[in-house]
Amino acid sequence: MNRLTVTEKIIAAKVSLGIRWSDVAAKVGLSKEWVTSACLGQMTLSMEQAQVVAEIFGLTEEEARWLTVTPYKGSLPTAVPTDPLIYRFYEMINVYGTTFKALIHEEFGDGIMSAIDFKMHLQRENDPNGDRVRIVMSGKFLPYKQY
Amino acid sequence: MNRLTVTEKIIAAKVSLGIRWSDVAAKVGLSKEWVTSACLGQMTLSMEQAQVVAEIFGLTEEEARWLTVTPYKGSLPTAVPTDPLIYRFYEMINVYGTTFKALIHEEFGDGIMSAIDFKMHLQRENDPNGDRVRIVMSGKFLPYKQY
Amino acid sequence: MNRLTVTEKIIAAKVSLGIRWSDVAAKVGLSKEWVTSACLGQMTLSMEQAQVVAEIFGLTEEEARWLTVTPYKGSLPTAVPTDPLIYRFYEMINVYGTTFKALIHEEFGDGIMSAIDFKMHLQRENDPNGDRVRIVMSGKFLPYKQY
Amino acid sequence: MNRLTVTEKIIAAKVSLGIRWSDVAAKVGLSKEWVTSACLGQMTLSMEQAQVVAEIFGLTEEEARWLTVTPYKGSLPTAVPTDPLIYRFYEMINVYGTTFKALIHEEFGDGIMSAIDFKMHLQRENDPNGDRVRIVMSGKFLPYKQY
Amino acid sequence: MNRLTVTEKIIAAKVSLGIRWSDVAAKVGLSKEWVTSACLGQMTLSMEQAQVVAEIFGLTEEEARWLTVTPYKGSLPTAVPTDPLIYRFYEMINVYGTTFKALIHEEFGDGIMSAIDFKMHLQRENDPNGDRVRIVMSGKFLPYKQY
Amino acid sequence: MNRLTVTEKIIAAKVSLGIRWSDVAAKVGLSKEWVTSACLGQMTLSMEQAQVVAEIFGLTEEEARWLTVTPYKGSLPTAVPTDPLIYRFYEMINVYGTTFKALIHEEFGDGIMSAIDFKMHLQRENDPNGDRVRIVMSGKFLPYKQY
Amino acid sequence: MNRLTVTEKIIAAKVSLGIRWSDVAAKVGLSKEWVTSACLGQMTLSMEQAQVVAEIFGLTEEEARWLTVTPYKGSLPTAVPTDPLIYRFYEMINVYGTTFKALIHEEFGDGIMSAIDFKMHLQRENDPNGDRVRIVMSGKFLPYKQY
Amino acid sequence: MNRLTVTEKIIAAKVSLGIRWSDVAAKVGLSKEWVTSACLGQMTLSMEQAQVVAEIFGLTEEEARWLTVTPYKGSLPTAVPTDPLIYRFYEMINVYGTTFKALIHEEFGDGIMSAIDFKMHLQRENDPNGDRVRIVMSGKFLPYKQY
Amino acid sequence: MNRLTVTEKIIAAKVSLGIRWSDVAAKVGLSKEWVTSACLGQMTLSMEQAQVVAEIFGLTEEEARWLTVTPYKGSLPTAVPTDPLIYRFYEMINVYGTTFKALIHEEFGDGIMSAIDFKMHLQRENDPNGDRVRIVMSGKFLPYKQY
Amino acid sequence: MNRLTVTEKIIAAKVSLGIRWSDVAAKVGLSKEWVTSACLGQMTLSMEQAQVVAEIFGLTEEEARWLTVTPYKGSLPTAVPTDPLIYRFYEMINVYGTTFKALIHEEFGDGIMSAIDFKMHLQRENDPNGDRVRIVMSGKFLPYKQY
């Protein structure tokens, strides 16, 4: 047993049970973005949170424990993703990556936008021309320091 | 001469002149995000916009014309980016990619968030624990249709 | 159990039963192109469609349910396909890719031909010099917009 | 001097002159698809055709001669294309590749759709929901034979 | 069950039974080159041929049926083969590939040597300095046509 | 100056002069296969042979000398070739590689077909269904020995 | 002109002048580790620091200005480094990477050791069995937070 | 059974038992860095040490024996690591690799810092701005010698 | 069952039995280098030799037979090896490869050192500064011939 | 100017002058193996040695100085070498790599054969069946130590 087998069990149980990620998140008491990534094997739950998740998906005590172990992260099977939805995000970096870089450095100087001290929120944006996906990302700016 | 040489000339001129991308954008009359990516060789300008950019950076008539040709896009030299700032965005996809996928499908069904009918806005978020970079992305949801 | 195991079960059942994809499509009531790609794990069926497919191939209730979950797409085991039939399509892109790009931009301006709002139709073209495969693809043009 | 330098000269001349590929094709007297790919370094012209192209783009006698030499084909800089328009075609293979394979074998048996004895035609399809790109491909079916 | 498991069963049965490929070919009534590649999962047999092969290797009815399904081709586990015997063929292409190209175009014009309408024959060449492997390949020349 | 620049000069001179490889070979007094590969930077000429080649293509004394230096071999720009003609040979290895291996080991035992003590001959095969390319390869069998 | 050409000019000037990095650092007034990485194109100098560096290496005003532009980082030509000294660091990650991960998570929980808020110091360690290289790295621990 | 299955059993047992690596190390009597890497399949234990580890994790005699066999090292599943914590170390090499090289050669001449005669120590550094991870590495300098 | 499963059984049996490769070689009556590589799945044994190996490691009749089948060679899981001991050999080629090439061509002319008609011998070299590994390789020189 | 341009100048000068590496080595007073690798850009010369080399190849004072700078090592253009002579060494590692590993660990325990404290000697071995290349490698064994 490892984290991957627990992730796969959660995904399979979700299909059987027909639950929504946002309902899982509501029971855990955190955002749907963080909880989904935790259930998909990318974040570390506390023992209490793991118990909630275990109950929802019918995990054993041992499986729940795996949810509290920091996983080896990276959810994609290939360096360049093949799934069209996920590829579009990769394409944004390919097309806009140097723009992100230019504008962040112009505003903040040398450093990065943290992917750790980071939050994101995903929601529907109603639009008469077809609804839109809106993603708001917020990450702490971390400056390179001289020493 | 090709688009790449024009892009490099723009970048070098910007260093010499000490101009800001946001000032360039103001003169063009569009967002700083779109204008920067156009100057970095990723978008196509109209002849009028190209003239404005050419005047700012001292481009020739011929060079301005290249700005109106749709470029071969992709601004990164390697499939997995090496630059720490740009890599963080790649990491977000690696860690959150399947989460994006799960939540968008839960909300919208099968389809993608467009990277073409797409806008993004990048700004500073003041925070006592250190300022944050805030990026808002909005892309039309495009459903797969049956036929 | 995951989508891949369901796909493999469908393929194996098809060999046992000696059914044709076009017959499966007729029962589902959609084109053979869309139905085949769905059975091969690339599209999402409605529960009703999934029941039809399940009955044809002898799938369990649980397996049918997997057909209604949006799959992680990408049907090829390697970035450059090794199968000669599939490679020929890759070769068309290698040889004609920049031509597609030049002609579509000439006709429509900057943007893409959608692979989502997309249909294709494949048929036999009788020809005295040897029959031909005819593929018609139709995808909505999506323009990049300025903002 | 080699074919690549001639291709680059043609592309640069086209930007200066503001000519359309379809006009070039009309002067050569062949389809816009074939002529564009030839000008982009993928096909071989006869000496007469090369003269026409040379006159349009102001090529020297020596450069024209290069157009009559069979080129080393492959127009893309990377195995997985980064340009969004071209990537969409790669994605179609990734998503529909096994479907192409299944349906062609179902109709024709073991073999391939030729990418050599091959024609394609690209045109605008008017549509009230937004115009569409329509591509018709026709390739001879080549059966594997036993021996 | 899939074609790969049938291929592996054939290979294992061949080791147990100590049969030669040329004997298998004689029973099928075709060349040893074609029959071996079919048994190794690269070609498609008719039902009659599959029965012969099934009897030789002790395959079930279901397994025999898999031999009649066109396989996903490509017999090598890596893009650059590691096995010394197979690598030598890859090396021939690396060293002689541009020579093949130059001489075939000189003789035939633009086009390819078909790998589908293709036969090959492999035999021992007695030589006092050490016997030699002689391989004769014959593939139809397919010209690119203008349209 | 290095071997590559000499190779490129030879190729460019051949285009200007309109010479055939088989005529070059006749003047050198060896097969067209070997001479072409030497001119394309894959084989090493003697000084006398290099003088002949130099005279044909108008090379300087220094350039001729480079033809006598053993080159770093490998004539293809990518691990998997993109040119359709050259790719077909790669495909033959992908489809028939394990067949080559099985049949050579069946006939000769463990070892390889040499790519060094190797000759090949390429010719036109007239055929009413379309002429064919015929390639005969002959390579010494080299057995692995125990020690 | 771009940052790379400035880096190359600095490296070439250093060879001509026979200066030591530690002396350059002393004049800039920062650690030798930070200053060397800045001169090698990885960090961003202030205009005052850039002037000092420009004077040492004989850079023009324009070149000095490039030192103040945040560079596209990544100093290695290949994903897996070929240089033996640099490879050893890559090997440490290959052998000890999961150990770093296990021990940091055991001590700190889920998060990372920052490579931005990061310092390192490299010095000689005298040892009778042969002197040793001692590297001290210090990076802020950044915890993943729930939201 | 092989070393990998033993490593996985150790990791799973550690999750069940809730033990800390530093406690395992204390029982073995060596540093936590070395012992963790040994348990993760990168180092070779003596039979006595293996017995201690076996007792802690409930390994069989046979499994303990595997701990005494030198393993095939390399703990990462991909050439460029995807896990954010481990990637940061890769990034340090990407950004600082040429700096490491420049400074070590300046101090020691041509040679390397050994990754074999190597020790490392990882500890918490208390800091009011947030605690830091401190890693001290010490490796023997090995000079290239002339011969 | 295939050769790989037999190799794994031999390796596992060797750990259980605590045998040395040199003892296995002595029983087979050949060098430890050749016998080890055969047991590791790289060489082909005669039936008599296979029986000896089978008896040592407790293989079945069927497993022994697999040792007499020429294997698909290549013992490394990745193109660039990750194991430090094996990587050092790869590094020697990276650093000394062009030197090997220059010196062998200087001495022998164009051709290669055979890796088939090849022997190697590995032994300990006592040295007061630390013992050394001594490897002697001997391979027949195979000249490229003109034809 | 950088080390690569100096290496290329040395190689070009060697072709012009028709000198042998062994004569260069004799003048430098070291082995032909070390001197050749230094001239090919892989080792670092002292100023006195650099002067000798500079005089032989007609290098300037500045170019000689580059020979005394430790180079970024790695002499091969691709991860898997394409040149047949160099590939054979790569093949030896692929076929014999795990054998090297097994036998060195059997004799010495866990550790590596150094590629730094390393010498090699290459010579002709006369043999009536065709002369052989003999390479003797000697590298210090470096044990992993526990701490």
Chart the SSEs and their pairings.
Ten copies of one chain form a homodecamer.
Chain A: H1 3-17, H2 21-28, H3 32-39, H4 47-57, H5 61-66, H6 84-108, E1 111-125, E2 132-143
Antiparallel strand pairs in A: 1-2
Helix pairs in contact in A: 2-3
What do you see in this structure?
Chains A, B, C, D, E, F, G, H, I, J: This is Cyanate hydratase. The structure is a homodecamer of 147-residue chains. With 147 residues, chain A is α+β, with helices and mostly antiparallel strands. Chain A has 2 domains: 64 residues, 434 Repressor (Amino-terminal Domain); 60 residues, Cyanate Lyase, Chain: A, domain 2 (2-Layer Sandwich), CATH 3.30.1160.10. Chain A is built from 6 helices and 2 strands; from the N terminus they run H-H-H-H-H-H-E-E. A two-stranded antiparallel ribbon of chain A has the order 1-2. The longest helix of chain A has 25 residues. Chain A is globular. Chain A starts with a helix and ends with a strand. At the H-J interface, helix 6 and strand 1 of H face helix 6 and strand 1 of J.
